Amino acid sequence: MQRPSIVVSLILFAAAGILSLTPASAYETGELVIPAQYEDARDFCGGSDGYAAVEMDGKWGFIDKTGSVVIPLKYGEVCDFSQGVAGVTTGNIASFVDDFGKDAVHETYSSVKSFSDGLAEVEGEFGGWGYIDMAGRQVIEAKYTDTQPFTEGVAWVLDEHWTLIDKAGNQVITQKYTSATPFAEGLAAVNLDQKYGFIDKTGDVVIRLIYDDAHKFSEGLAAVEVGDKWGFVGKDGNWAVMPKYQLVENFSEGLAAVASYTEGTEGYVNKEGKEVIPLKYSRARNFSGGLAAVELNGKWGYIDEKGSVVIPLKYEDAGTFMYDLAPVKSGGKWGYIAKGDGRAPAIAPTDHSDAPEVEVLHTTPELGDVVIPLKYDGIMFCQEGLMGAKINGKWGFIDKKNKVAIAPKYDFVMPFKDGLAPVRMGKKWGFINKTGKTVVPVRYDSVGYEFSQGLAWVAIGGKYGVVNKTGKLVVPMKYQGIGQFSMGLAAAKTGGKWGIIDKTGKQVVAPKYEQLSASAGGRAAAKLNGKWGFIHCGDSGYKPGSVCIPFHYDSALDFASGLAPVMLGDKWGVISRDGIEVITPHYQRVDIFKEGLAAVKRDDKWGFISLGCGEVIPAKYEDAISFAEGLAPVKNDGKYGFVDTTGEVVIPLQYDRAEPFSDGLDRVTLGGKSGFIARGPR
Length: 682
Hints:
Layout: H1 10-15, E1 32-38, E2 40-41, E3 52-56, E4 59-63, E5 69-75, E6 77-78, E7 85-90, E8 93-98, E9 111-116, E10 119-123, E11 129-133, E12 138-144, E13 146-147, E14 154-159, E15 161-166, E16 179-180, E17 188-192, E18 195-199, E19 205-211, E20 213-218, E21 221-226, E22 229-233, E23 239-248, E24 256-260, E25 266-269, E26 275-281, E27 283-284, E28 291-296, E29 299-304, E30 309-315, E31 317-318, E32 325-330, E33 333-338, E34 370-376, E35 386-391, E36 394-399, E37 404-410, E38 412-413, E39 420-425, E40 428-433, E41 438-444, E42 446-447, E43 455-460, E44 463-468, E45 473-479, E46 481-482, E47 489-494, E48 497-502, E49 507-513, E50 515-516, E51 523-528, E52 531-536, E53 547-553, E54 555-556, E55 563-568, E56 571-576, E57 581-587, E58 589-590, E59 597-602, E60 605-610, E61 614-621, E62 623-624, E63 631-636, E64 639-644, E65 649-655, E66 657-658, E67 665-670, E68 673-678
Antiparallel strand pairs: 1-33, 2-3, 3-4, 4-5, 6-7, 7-8, 9-10, 10-11, 11-12, 13-14, 14-15, 16-17, 17-18, 18-19, 20-21, 21-22, 22-23, 23-24, 24-25, 25-26, 27-28, 28-29, 29-30, 31-32, 32-33, 34-68, 35-36, 36-37, 38-39, 39-40, 40-41, 42-43, 43-44, 44-45, 46-47, 47-48, 48-49, 50-51, 51-52, 52-53, ...
């Protein structure tokens, strides 16, 4: 579960993970599920619920596996999603966005690359490259001519020659090389005096520098060149595939694409060097999910591991299957096809627009009982008795009895809050009520996740304003950004800085902050001159904007239950509303307190702390999410389950994804399908 990397509203934190999972297995193999309409398109990335970068009219954005545009096509360049964020560039300004399309680090750079191993390469204003962490902190100075991504805890940086550094920026080996590849499987290919070999992370030469070129290790083998012929060696330096090929790709799923030295045609070898798929193709890409794209006579299609054509060679170009979808080019445009498995769609077509009704599985559900079957292409957590569900390609809402409450006709929806829900038709957003009536016209480029104190922000053409529940514009569309209202006030951005406005749009705190969080609880986390502190924002008897906790933290989250996580250096602790340190900063991460407990990360494992009682649930999980309704999702061995406040596992760790309980239900995902389990009686 990807956490927000810096101060974001609690609402966005709660909403993480609501985007849909496309059931590619519900389609026939090779079926075109996202129309060929893009000028360029990349593979899906970022996990099983990831996004793909696409280009139209010279602008890049991201789509999900349903084909819905989740981040508008407005950027000049984008990096693929990695670790929940993606680098984007507009003009000469580069930054990072999260999977809601919101600023992820709230800083801008000359250029950026994707996150890897918790750090991202960024180019500073003076042209040097360095690294930032997921909180946006510059952890390694931007002083290098070039950099490579961190892998296995180390990265290569260029300063006349390539040298190896750790995450603290310390040089870990003394030898400097002409070129090098990122570490893979514990080894890195290096070049010195035009000869290549492999070293380990201590700098010891494991495979002598005797080759003319070399690639990184993959599946225990590395491609190396002798003369002008390529083959593969193992980690002992012995030949596994003799050097006789013109070109080779790395091994993937036990096979590697190779090109004939004499003809240039391509096929595949196994790890014993046997040509198991004849070298007859013009081009051959790596295997992924049991399929590989190949080209013959100018047309692309897909073969399986036996060499059988399973998707006809009919496309102008084709990419690699990732999470059961692959980009293909037809008629000069790119779209996506499904890998599929030949099964019928998970939700059969009906003779009316509503979804088929299914009987509730349990009249009195017990803890962990499946009450909404794991059958939907996409489903959202339950809020105010309703949940968004995707049926036959469109989104609507179902109730707790699995009956359709609002017919599926929208391209996307978000959960109800305060009686209203955002909906999207085409590229425009508005709000509906629980009867399905449109109360805020579907005309905005984007809208706030929810109404707060009867108000929500809306945006058109990059300008933000505020509407009430009747759709009336009550704050003019003139801001660069607006937060949620709390205690009659909201953060608003103008001139590149954040301040605070009231419900009429009157400026009550001048815009001077680099960042400003939600104002829940009357105190807002704010960033000024690179440091975080807290200002009064609706506290009774205090002037809005007056400082209540000095600006000396490196990061901070909002107050919840009178406590706020703060970071000093690279460690997190907790302070009280009067600024007293109640938990010394020594954790890798601390989340907000909910129901008396907060998730904490220590030694790369998650557990829970209680104020005054220390660590009450040991830090032993791969992931842990905040408590809700007495239970918290935890993850080990790639699977989620739930623990109670004593740490006892009450729902087995068996799901691919899980969210905190809401309204007595929890959205879980298993095998690419989503449904709900019950909280049951307490």
